[in-house]
């Protein structure tokens, strides 16, 4: 999100301060380069500081913002700060990425968190499924905007369909946590079947870390480990098709990054971003969630249709552009202006 925050901070009349979690601890299953935040005013909270409401309240008191943006209700410290705001409080915008499933817990969330939602002036959602959840929580259409996530176009925006994209260098790539919800087992099983189905199978590079790291192996599988976002474009330039077979994926920024880099994709129906981004056989393929057979067929289809990779990659890059960091900054500036103007009215 650092690229998005930078773009927002460059918008006219915007003073931005970010109080975010430092995602480099073992509990986060990742170790992102925190120096990317050096050019953004704000503070990164360590694991021990995440629950310290006082720290956040002090930041709010010192900065005195017109608008506070919180990431849903995932952080009790952030939500407590909102609940404690006085009547002359700043406006509150809430980001959401949880998709609507209609289960019992979600049915009761509207009432369970009613006090919080009464303080929220506007919601920005990840996509269509989250928009549906926001409506069920009682927010009107006028109080919901789409586009909570964006991808770093400065980092990933160079097309990958370059001379290396020849039949001799075809390959698949996955980027994400090595966790059950990412469909790691489905991916490895489908890839194994794919290799048994064709001659001269393409390799599969898997970038990430997590509890299933020890299972990421097999003939043709390259376990590249955790890769910093700044280093992913070079991985994409060596790849032909991006695969995201998640069993649960609220949106999927990695999908947008890969498409922004010019890669066609194979995505499961569980990926929230697939609704916004994937157009079957034009810029990628959609497969049923947790279906080894369908994912295998997706691998085989690209293997047998090499000539479609470059044009589909170009289409993918075009589709991802509205979600670039530059457009994210413009979109959020418009949302925040609208929230401020609604108070003035």
- Using only CA atoms, what is the Rg? 21 Å
Give the % helix.
25-40%
Q: Give the CATH architecture of the largest domain.
A: 3-Layer(aba) Sandwich
The structure class reads alpha/beta
The protein's oligomeric status is: single chain
Span of the ends, CA to CA: 31 Å
Element pattern in H and E: HEEHEHEHHEHEHEHEEHEHEHEHHH
The chain-level mean pLDDT equals: 91
Output the CATH topology of the largest domain: Rossmann fold
Q: What is the strand content?
A: 5-15%
Question: How many beta-strand segments?
Answer: 12
Number of helices: 14
CATH level 1 name of the largest domain: Alpha Beta
- Anisotropy-based shape: elongated
Ranges where pLDDT stays below 50 over 5 or more residues in a row are 160-165
The main pleated sheet reads as: 6 strands, parallel
Q: List the domain count as a whole number.
A: 2
The strands making up the biggest β-sheet line up spatially as: 9-8-7-10-11-12
Describe what you observe in this structure.
This protein has 345 residues and is an alpha/beta fold. It is built from 14 helices and 12 strands. It folds into 2 domains: 2-150 and 324-344, 3-Layer(aba) Sandwich (Rossmann fold), CATH 3.40.50; 155-318, Glycogen Phosphorylase B (Rossmann fold). It has helices at 2-9, 53-63, 76-83, 104-112, 114-119, 128-136, 153-156, 184-197, 232-237, 253-260, 272-277, 292-304, 309-320, 325-344; strands at residues 18-21, 42-45, 67-70, 91-96, 122-125, 144-146, 172-175, 204-207, 221-225, 241-244, 265-268, 284-287. Strands 9-8-7-10-11-12 form a 6-stranded parallel β-sheet, sandwiched between helices. A 4-stranded parallel β-sheet has the order 3-4-5-6, sandwiched between helices. Helix 11 links the parallel strand 11 (265-268) and strand 12. Mean pLDDT is 91; it is low at 160-165.
């Amino acid at each position: 999100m650092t690229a998005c925050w930078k773009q927002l901070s460059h918008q006219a009349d915007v003073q931005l301060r970010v109080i975010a979690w430092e995602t480099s601890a073992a509990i986060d299953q990742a170790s992102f380069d925190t120096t990317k935040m050096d050019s953004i005013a704000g503070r990164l909270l360590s694991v021990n500081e995440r629950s310290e409401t006082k720290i956040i309240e002090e930041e709010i008191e010192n900065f005195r913002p017109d608008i506070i943006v919180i990431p849903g209700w995932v952080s009790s410290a952030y939500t407590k700060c909102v609940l404690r705001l006085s009547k002359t409080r700043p406006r509150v915008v809430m980001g959401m990425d949880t998709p609507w499933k209609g289960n019992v817990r979600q049915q009761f969330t509207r009432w369970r968190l009613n006090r919080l939602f009464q303080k929220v002036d506007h919601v920005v959602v990840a996509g269509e499924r989250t928009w549906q959840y926001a409506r069920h929580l009682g927010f009107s259409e006028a109080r919901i905007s789409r586009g909570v996530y964006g991808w770093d176009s400065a980092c990933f925006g160079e097309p990958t369909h370059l001379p290396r994209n020849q039949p001799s260098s075809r390959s698949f790539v996955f980027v994400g946590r090595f966790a059950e919800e990412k469909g790691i087992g489905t991916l490895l099983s489908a890839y194994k079947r794919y290799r048994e189905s064709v001659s001269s199978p393409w390799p599969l590079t898997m970038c990430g870390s997590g509890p299933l790291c020890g299972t990421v192996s097999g003939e043709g599988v390259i376990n590249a480990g955790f890769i910093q976002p700044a280093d992913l474009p070079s991985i994409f330039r060596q790849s032909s098709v991006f695969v995201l077979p998640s069993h649960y994926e609220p949106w999927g920024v990695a999908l947008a990054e890969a498409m922004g880099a010019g890669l066609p994709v194979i995505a499961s129906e569980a990926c929230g971003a697939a609704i916004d981004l994937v157009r079957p056989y034009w810029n990628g393929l959609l497969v049923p969630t947790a279906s080894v057979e369908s994912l295998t067929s997706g691998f085989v289809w690209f293997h047998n249709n090499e000539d479609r990779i470059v044009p589909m990659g170009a289409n993918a890059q075009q589709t991802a552009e509205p979600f670039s960091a530059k457009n994210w900054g413009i979109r959020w500036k418009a949302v925040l202006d609208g929230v401020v103007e609604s108070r003035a009215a």
